[in-house]
Amino acid sequence: MASQLFIGLMSGTSLDGVDVALVTFNHLQQPQLLKTHFVDYSADLRTQILALQHPTDNELEKTALIGNTLAHLYATAVNELLSAAKIDATSVNAIGCHGQTIRHRPELGFTMQIGNAALLSELTGITVVSDFRSRDIAAGGQGAPLVPAFHQDAFAHNKHNRAIINIGGIANITYLSNTGEIFGFDSGPGNMLLDAWIKQHLGLNYDADGQWSSTGNIIEPLLSTMLSEPYFSAQPPKSTGRDLFNDAWLSRWLATQEYAHNDVARTLVALSAHSIANAVKQYCGQADEIYLCGGGAKNKLLTSDLQSLMGSVRIETTDKLGMGIDWVEAIAFAWLAKKCLSQESANLPEVTGARGLRILGAIYQA
Prior knowledge:
366 residues
């Protein structure tokens, strides 16, 4: 069987931009990363997307127009990638496009990722697969996280019990036992609250290496009260996003007392670390290896906190498994597009809670 080319596009809750991965699948169906590209979001686009997280004036039209803007940005990213790789668009089987999540309410039976996949197909001349979450939600599932199925395919080991932790805006955990058991869910905030806090007080988009938060001290009573959030103790399957963990959520815990800004930042790092570690200990207790990916894997303070909380369990990054931390999710959506075109199920009912296996994605044929 000849190798097949797919492109994965991922723009997550951190709202930093779009990751693009050109992936080939060989006769064993294993992905090989050929080329990567990143295009950042402008400050104006980031602000517009954030405004759509909540009801706003004329939001239907604004959502459609921003979806078109994203399609043009995604197309630019794809075309730049192909140009750098010296590959013609006609050689690509499909683009797997996650789209930008603006609402995720599985408890109400819907999720919304924008990016106008039809327009993206027109602009690139490539078949686009998108809207991966909706079918799982229609089947009674959470619609997320979707990457555990890919993690199982890429990272499972017959001798080690592994936890794969993606720390983006939201942190999600996949447990891969050496017997084939798989489990996964969103543990809670990853970078999202810290990003919002440093943006508010220093005008920066993120706290590089945890440098600012490292200057503060953990506010133990604040950490304890934030960890009382019911989501953390809710049983999986569960998924979350900005619909819960947003500026209003943080303001609620800060309303009764003034704290030094860097102390709050330090406490938010601890919140992410504790919520992740608590979830791993409760649901992935047999894990003897932990691998991190996503932007949060670069935050030295966060990873140090995690290692302290997890004790002797070895924590590495997915680079050690041959897949760069910045590209795991984009590769996963190339994989999901391939599964859709092959008419293969790609959800995991044991992860999302869906009634059964489902083929995920809507196809916009070139």
